[in-house]
Amino acid sequence: MSQxxxxxxxxxxxxxxxxxxxxxxxxxxxxxxxxxNKHFLHSMAFEHFKFPGLxxxxxxTASAISFLSSNQKSVPFGGRWKVWHSITLFLFFIASIxxxxxxxxxxxxxxxxxFIALFKSIGVIIACAFCWxxxxxxxxxxxxxxKQALIKTNSVFLETSFGLVVQCTFLLLIAAVGLLNIWIVxxxxxxxxxxxxxxxxxxxxxxxxxxxxxKKTDHWSGSLFFTILLFFLAINFVTxxxxxxxxxxxxNYYINICSLLEQNQGLIEGFQPYPWSLYLSxxxxxxxxxxxxxxxxxxxxxxxxxxxxxxxxxxxxxxxNRALLVLMLVSMIPAVANHMFIELKVDFGLxxxxxxxxxxxxxxxxxxxxxxxxxxxxxxxxxWIRFLILFGxxxxxxxxxxxxxxxxxxxFAVIVWTIYYRYLGFLFMFxxxxxxxIIGDFDAISGLREYHLSMDxxxxxxxxxxxxxxxxLWFRDLPKGITLVKHASIYSIVLLLMMSPWIGKNYIETKSxxxxxxxxxxxxxxxxNMKTMVKTYNQSKKK
Amino acid sequence: xxRSPKYNKLTSIAICIIWLSILLVPHLGQSQQTLKxxxxxxxxxxxxxxxxxxxxxxxxxxxxxxxxxxxxGDFVDIGFLFLILLPLLFFIRYxxxxxxxxxxxxxxxxxxxxxxxxxxxxxPSSKRMILNQEGQTNYTIDGSVDGIREVIIxxxxxxxxxxxxxxxxxxxxxxxxxxxxTYPLVLLLFIGFASLLYFGFNKKxxxxxxxxxxxxxxxxxxWYILSSGIIWYGFIGWILGxxxxxxxxxxxxxxxxxxxTSIASYIVIGLWTCSALILRMSNIxxxxxxxxxxxxxxxxxxxxxxxxxxxxxxxxxxxxxxxSNTIRQINRNDDALVYRVGTSFSYFIDNNxxxxxxxxxxxxxxxxxxxxxxxxxxxxxxxxxxFKYLIIDLxxxxxxxxxxxxxxxxxxxxxxxxxxxxxxxxxxxxxRVKTFDKQGKLTENVAYNVFGKVLxxxxxAIYEIL
Lengths: 543, 466
Known about the structure:
heterodimer; A: mainly alpha; two-stranded antiparallel sheet; 2 strands; 76% helix; 1% strand; globular; B: 2 domains; five-stranded mixed β-sheet; 51% helix; 12% strand; elongated
């Protein structure tokens, strides 16, 4: 290559790098400046910051832990940071936060008040832990007992999620017959512990002595992210120690439903399907405490973090430190944090099963890949059935919590078809699903449809082209197509089965077969409309 | 990723051309101006999405969500990391591809110009939002009061408004309040972008990255097209986005640029973490009195109840003046129905799923008003239908972001209904006013009432229908 070419290429590379750097710096600076201008709450937060002591204590603690976890040789207790250390640290943060807030609560700071607050906090933690562990042991026991275990991987998160599905189904059955009371529910929650009595000690020991930071920790940053996360969660924990929820939707819908379930000791008419509120109502039904209900909603997020951690470390090959960075960043999104202490809804419950369904898919594809690598021709039929049932259960239950999970179900469909049929699979499945979405009125909630004047033609073009394309792909490789349809059918049947109790309830209440009524149900409140109001008024005038 | 056979690409291009022809050619240049007056979905749901020209309403969403142009508050704040790190880390990592090197900066700049032309600049000195609609605002720069940050932002916004002119011409020609083009365009953009990613990357990418990024893109697109910008409908999408962001973080030992990118990314993350932590610790509510700002990390009243100084009834009355007695009265009347306009008091009412009628956007009340213009007769209609109580959220008008202010108009109708109506009686409110005497003169008496010279705006009022 001539000298000029080499020189030009070098200059080009340098200019390209310079352009990249300049643009990156420009864009980052611009967005941060603009963000700071529009989010004056952030600057007000700094301007009116009132907790320098607490912040200093936290920074000191975080520094010490980062040092301890990175400097294994000098640590007196062997250099292994375990789960029970984290629980102790969490309680320490709770105590510090409560103490720091006494001043602004008009409370004279003294040890007896702190003790009362800590005592209640520990009580709430134990109550929530009891519920979650009951779900975990339920899932583990069923998984071990059935001949072909549904969950082959040693996943605490997946077993807990599966246990939650089983428990919510049981709660639904007893609520349907008006038996949602402590005398039925509490024994049911205790049964899994009794059934697993042989493994109880070992399991608790493994759980609490599991090592979080060991000599294999890559960097001190992991423990720093973890400590920040723990502190942030502790602040939100203390905020949830309240006699009633603070948010609009929590009070009008989600936690309100929990309270109504306890009042009625059974299912209540109206509202969208509420399997997760049914689970959260354990706080009222078993413990007669709003604290526990609110904390179950909050601690659902901690269960989500467990699932996310597993996804990041087991499937995405992220190091422990980067996985903890993900957890920290997710928790600190203000919109997410808002759901931890103001608007306590069912979105974290939904997240548990969404993450579970993603994990199930990743587990299965990993298994598929490892078998292909070992030159075995195909997976056993039982592996397929096991995957489809578990996947269907998680997706179906998530959809029964909130219909918006259909976005994830559709995304799964697009991805799976892309894996099978490459680009055309993506294109046709995407178009077909978009068409079905519009025809099925799934966009009704946004109210934006009337602004899109081409919607009538778009929906038929999408459905038509997508549908024809899918049929074409199916015929192009018929054996593969038949297998795919069989699998999709099993999955869809399981998904619909999980939603069927709520669809049934909605049908009984609305007497309508319209898809939106079957999925969303009847509105709460007295069934009054203008016609009945006028009629009743006219009749009253006659009297 | 396997490069598909040529005919796959040709097939997909053919489909797109046919589709575009069917949809766009007959309808190019046609747009309609339709306003939905008093529509509840327009007021309640679409406030997260915005009300500008339809085409740019969609295209400006990534920016609007980050800057909270349409709706403000912690509950819709996703931070700045998505808009900074996701595109930049992608840009830096895949800069060798010419369509990334040129396309990404161009796309981001166009996004910025379109989005800022329907936004606002906050002026800290005067504490006001200077709105910008269709790039019409000329931001005045006052060197004596504007900080360096505001000077930079205003200068850039003024420049953007000039650059917006051709985009405005496009939107005027093709779009409006409603149009034929936006939906097909958005679908096409997604297919185009996904196709670029599919064909642009080879099979050396690890399968789990393909799966995760594919899930993220698909989910975010379905959320984008169906959820009207409501943040919490897309939580799993944001989480997948954070994972994608961290996956894109470069290995610092790879080369010099990677090292500096890694350092810069962690600086940005560090800035964000500090800001988010302080934000949470201070828990600022701008409506609070200045003396109490920064002191609400934990609600002080709840803390008093936690340590046993106050009971639940006292806590409720501290939040909402005289609410516990009123709620007790409502709960004594098992059959009495409650007409609720806003507030979150359903929680305290027994069997509220049977007794509380919700009309947050006042759509039903407006219909009642039209059918029964006389307010005393309207009270009789409510009473005949067993409505005994009316709960009003005094902050209802603040929800109205529509240009036509339809909710404000309906709310005024509700307030007119309760004003000097002998058929309704105020039971409880936390609004404090100076009262007027019978001659209409202002007195120095301060009372809890809805009408008078307002001292403390309050949040609720509960009336009994007599």
